[in-house]
Design brief:
It is built from 5 helices and 10 strands, in the order H-H-E-E-H-H-H-E-E-E-E-E-E-E-E. The strands form 2 sheets. Strands 2-1-4-3-6-9 form a 6-stranded mixed β-sheet. The chain has a single domain, classed as Gamma-B Crystallin, domain 1, CATH 2.60.20.10. It has helices at about 5-15, 30-35, 60-70, 80-85, 90-95; strands at about 45-50, 55-60, 100-110, 115-125, 135-140, 160, 170, 180, 190, 205. It comes from Saccharothrix lopnurensis. This is Peptidase inhibitor family I36.
Amino acid sequence: MQTTNRRKRITAAFAGLVFGLAWVVYAPTASAGEGKPAASAAQGTHCVISVTTKAVDCFATITESIAFATGGRVTDAPSDVLTAVKDPDVTARINGGGPGALAVIGIQYYLANYGSHSLTVNGPDVGCDGPVDPPEYFVAPLPNFVPSGGINWNNNIRSFQGYSGCWQALFDDPGCTVRIYPTIPPWWGPFAADLGVANDRAECIYWS
């Protein structure tokens, strides 16, 4: 699918919400966030979606979103997004917490190199079986918060990190039929700092 028109539509939707809203202003580097619209402070930009209930909760910081996604098991994740991703201790504790616990399956990022806003996906701690079919989980379409001043996560993912042994695949349509990442064997990825030609195209995610 072409992303240029979509990005224009998203930008127009944000512009219509300017009146009465406070805006978060940031200046991403050209390589990481060129063409990305700013996100509104009216909607928390670190969100959590459940693969089982599809319920979504949003927060102002990734520290809060990870605490919620892990059921309170990890409450001290760094508030800086990149630091949180790169900290091996945080990563180890985010991974599944045992029977009955909530497990983080993956975190999607608005910019390349795990930058800016995040969408954390969680579910029951049953884990994944690695890069093989069939998938254990999926989310489609992705959450759209433009009407409330936030982000439409459809066509707005540029990097991701998998957790709890889960690998993911991205698709260019909500029907999950057009795989855009990875496009070579093993057809699943544990993480990606930059999706390249698949940037800003995902509307469906599978995890295995």
